[in-house]
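A brief tutorial aside. Many learners find it easier to grasp structure tokens once they have seen a single protein encoded end to end. The record that follows does exactly this for Leucine zipper transcription factor-like protein 1. Read the sequence first, then the structure, and try to relate runs of similar tokens to stretches of the chain.
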Amino acid sequence: MKTDLQSCVVFPTFFNFPLALQKYSVDYKLQTCYINIVVYLWQLYCTLSKELLEQVAEFEKAEFTSSNKKFIIDSMKPKLAPLHEGGAAELLNKEIIRLQEENERLKSRLKTIESQLNTLEQLCNFSKDFIKAQDLSDLGNTVAALKSEFQKTLNDQTENQKSLEENLATAKHDLLRVQEQLSMAEKELEKKFQQTAAYRNMKEILTKKNDQIKDLRKRLAKYEPED
């Protein structure tokens, strides 16, 4: 029992190792592996501590019961009359001293148990703080990943906007070129149309002149003498 209690007192010092991990910035995978070991050992330590405390309680209960029985049996045994007047007082003083020693022994054991409980409580608090710090680290990594993803999306949108602006400028240039070509085609068509109208007008004038000449010849033929 004593050896088990001493091992429980020494055991929590093992858990100071995470501070060294944080101090010397050990690899994250090693920290994660060690966290799993710490959690497993902490659960094992809690189980062993609980069993040891129960054993201590049973041991104290049994020993206290045994001491009471022994005291009752001793008190029930017939005692010889003291040979002098101070014999009863001496026996009473011895019993008082024995009870005081027993009380001190129980107090010492109680302090040992309280110390072990405090150590266990500190270990639990340390484990909680360590796990909480790990959760905060994971949260920080998640925030960093989201920030990186947002920045990447923003950069992609910027590139897309730049590409759209370039495409728009190219489309405007093509539109101006097509409009210029269309204007030139309209002018050319109008020129050809004007030329065609002038040709038709000239042909129409010539046709009228020929008709007038024919008509004049017919009239002159009427006035010419017959042979």
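Self-check: Residues 2-76+89-169 form one domain. If you spotted this yourself, you are ready for the next section.
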